[in-house]
Structure formats: C-alpha cells, structure tokens
Amino acid sequence: MAITQAMCTSFKQELLQGIHNFTNGSGGGTTTSTGTGNAFKIALYTSSASLDSTTTAYSSSNEASGTNYTAGGAALTNVTPTASSTTALTDFADVTWASSSITARGALIYNSSTTAGSANRAVLVLNFGSDKTSSSGDFTITFPTADASSAIIRIA
C-alpha cells in the first residue's frame, strides 16, 4: 500500500465537465456559474491506504481514526478561488482537529457535496512523507501560500 501525492486524474476531467464548483460557499450547484459552491472535505488516512492519481472518490477504507476525528474528515472552509493572467488557483483555511489523538500518513481532499454527480469525488491526494501523530493535542493541516507557485490547487 502507498500514498502518492497527486491531483486526481478524474478531477481534471470533472473540471472540464463543470462538476466541481469552488465558489466560496457551503454546498450547492454543479456548474461553473457564480453563487454557492460545492462543499469540500479533507479526510486523513493511515499508511495502509492506497491513494494516488487514480483515486476517484472518498472511501473509508484505511481512514484514520482516533479521539476527536470523525469518519469523512473535516469540512474545508474559506474556499478561495482566484485567477491571474497565467494561473487559476484555490485555497482553503488551515484545518485543526483539536485535542485529538490521531496518526495519519496522508489525506484526501474531496467534494463532499450531496448534489447528484459530485458527491464524494476525489480532488487531491496528500502524502505527509511519514506518519504524523497527535496525542491529546492538535492535529493541524497547514495549507501553503495561495500563489501561482505554491497554492494547494493551481492550474497554469
């Protein structure tokens, strides 16, 4: 089993189909029109998980567990899509599981919208490089700077 960091191939195709809407919001449409966007989550996984560019959807198989972690992960907030003349990107607020006891090797960002056609579709696999653990403390995912060279999701 392995976790390989990658933008999911199915996500790239689904962008062209207008399935994912990163407009800042709390769930909603499946088109690229402005308004309320889809809801996105981040789920944590153990080193036994098999996640890579071919991952197409959220799965609870080998998902992390522990104190103050709920299956399915945490909601991503402050979804901020922006574009310049050369790059389109999006950013999320950092995520913290407070007072938790969790061990995770990687994570999956996915569209958690319940809208038909977009529910639980994979976006991005993250590999932490080694197991990361919290023991009755905070487990935090810190997203990189939202710019053309560092944003967590960027299309140039």
Please give the structural blueprint.
Blueprint: E1 6-7, H1 9-16, E2 40-45, E3 66-67, E4 74-75, E5 82-83, E6 88-90, E7 95-111, E8 121-141, E9 153-155
Antiparallel strand pairs: 1-8, 2-4, 2-7, 3-7, 5-6, 6-9, 7-8
Architecture overview:
This protein is mostly beta strands. The chain has a domain at 6-82 and 104-133. Helices cover 5% and strands 37% of the residues. It contains one helix and nine strands; from the N terminus they run βαββββββββ. Strands 1, 2, 3, 4, 7 and 8 form a six-stranded antiparallel beta sheet that branches. A three-stranded antiparallel beta sheet has the order 5-6-9, with no helix packed on it. It is globular and about 45 Å long. Mean pLDDT is 88; it is low at 26-33.
Structural class: mainly beta
Global morphology: globular
Q: Can you tell me the residue ranges where pLDDT is under 50 for at least 5 consecutive residues?
A: 26-33
Largest sheet: 6 strands, antiparallel
Number of strands: 9
Order of SSEs, N→C? EHEEEEEEEE
Rounded Rg: 15 Å
Total count of helical runs of at least 4 residues: 1
Cα-to-Cα separation, first versus last residue: 31 Å
Proportion of residues in β-strands: 35-45%
Share of helix among residues? under 10%
The pLDDT mean sits at 88
